[in-house]
# Entry
Amino acid sequence: MVDCTGGDDDYLDPNDDDEDYDAYDANFCENDVRKPNVDSIKMITKETLLAAQREHLRTVMEVLSLKEQHARTLLIHYRWDVDKLVTVLVEKGKDELYAEAGLSSVEHDNFVPAQLPSMVMCVVCTEDVPAVEVTTMDCGHCFCNSCWTEHFIVKINEGQSRRIRCMEHQCQAICDEVKIRILVSARDPNLAEKFDRFLLESYIEDNKKVKWCPSVPHCGNAIRVDDNELCEVECACGQQFCFSCLSEAHSPCSCLMWELWCKKCRDDSETVNWMTVHTKPCPNCHKLVEKNGGCNRVQCICRKEFCWFCGLSLDAGHSCGRYKEEREKVNTVIERAKTELLRYIHYHNRYKAHIDSLKLESKLKNTIQEKISWLEETITTNIDYRWVTNGLYRLFRSRRVLSFSYPFAYYMFGDEGFNNNMMKYERDIKQSLFEDQQQQLEANVEKLSSILEDHFDQFLEDEVMKMRLNVIDLSAVIDKLCKELYECIGNDLLGYHQWTTPSIAPYMSNGVDKASELVCKDMKPSHTKKNSGKDAICFTDEWPSVKRLKTDDFTHG
Amino acid sequence: MMDFARVQKELQECSKDIEGSGIRVTPKTDATLARLVGTIPGPIGTPYEGGTFQIDINLPDGYPFEPPKMQFATKVWHPNISSQSGAICLDILKDQWSPALTLKTALLSVQALLSAPQPDDPQDAVVAQQYLKDYQTFVGTARYWTESFAKISSLGVEEKVQKLVEMGFPEALVRGTLESVGGDENLALEKLCSG
# Structure
């Protein structure tokens, strides 16, 4: 790779640097500015989902001395946010808390059929049914089992398993899941199983702290982030993604910028600009005509001849050579489209170039590994080659930062409204500041890339030592520059509007946080064993069966 | 799958109380109970007073566990009813439907909607705008629409009166008799001849 050291990096040239190399030893990656988020990022598999849910259920059951199904109704309503639930409890009291969630007073749910006359009229089917064939919900409303079952089936098929209301008009009570399960499984066991799964998955789908891994095909895992939800995570399946928008990790680009950029790259909005610059509509048939020769008398396929300068018909009376004031306007529109197109091409080329480099460099990983293995086998001295892999890792990391910094700049300094209150001169200053940072980073990244491509396996020992120092030093410089670029973006550019919250995931020296396995107190030993290591990602077990859910989790008393 | 026994019972219940509620539900054809026509009188004291509004009712297979589909067949000027299609914006016909409700209670709710428009949750934005910004014009238009589209039978009455008067019966007697037989021309003639 070409050594791209420009003039920009003079004062950060690693060769002039007097920093202590030992400080950036092979393990320098461990020294992160920020405490890693790792402990707060958990991966939830099919097997741990139930345990994860029960952690929260248990808290609520203990605080309010509730049964599991009632605790679940509450948690589904409050979107699994135990803090919110407790806040409502403290501020509004138990009755209000229950009423909001559609939980009836849970005291009188021990329904005794003897209290009813022997025949009961069900107002839904308008039939008289024996009292043993009716079910009373916690809210006190009583209908026949057949009608209840029908109601539940309709609601489950509508995808409303998590909030099935009582059949009585204007009754907001949520039906007891235990009663639903008993009635539905008698008619349709498969649907009852589906119902259970919907309730289980509520923990993921109704919970802002948990999201499905967006991998395709889906790995079956979900990720839970306990503190800062604005972050980038890596699932055990290897998928890296932005936890906020679920697309690929894209910082320092914000989610909105990234969404716009992807759309822009995908659709042909620039084709429109190209057509504006390079074609003109025929004054007769209005089709777009591209000029393919020098002559400015253009003929459309409809045989109409028109003037390329003014776009008007070449009939008698055509005289666009004469100067008229308003024609200037047409040119400005074309000029603007041209400038905008060139600007987009500029940023897109650089963004793409870094992505392409990243692809090529990922091949280096294997080459370097081979070289190291060869060296370790042939040379007896015990040299640690971790600095090479660390350097390579730093290269990958910073390539991504660099490539995403271009779409960021495209929006930040363009006219898309990301800088609306910034004065022109202010914007220019900030832009050149940002670009200085970006260029320094770019120069050093290219330098590192070029060094890592060297054939260090054929080097003499002092050459290897020199390379090691270079790589370690460059890695440190690059890490520092990345950090500074994020600071510049966070503080000077995005932080410019004081009312906006920071909208990019923070820079992590160690790269995207890997989710760790969720281990719950009440998990059975067999579960923990099953889920250890890489097995968890390729686990093909079915969902926890209805039977297990029933016996283990839902029966009580 | 549909509970026809219940629908049958509902129709019977409803016909018992036509005098009281003014609400009528009849099958559209003899072939099926899934397609019905409901009739509601315009509420007194509203621009709909004096009109008779027909509502097309389609019962889904899941009825009464799924809400009936209702749509005005008579054109009506109301913020929550489409002036084009007759579609009704009413919560109990959507997510607030309960299997314990009936066609009659649903039609009563539709009638209540005529009395109490909810322009903040409009079905027809044009009507809702007019309701909020120019209430007098709204009342005028709604009344005009009632006169034009919901009183077709009343125009018929005048024709029947004229026909019977031409036969030689006094006008006051003709009107009284027609009213007593519910507007049926032949029954009125029979009664006039026999009386």
Remarks:
- The first helix of chain A runs from residue 46 to 64.
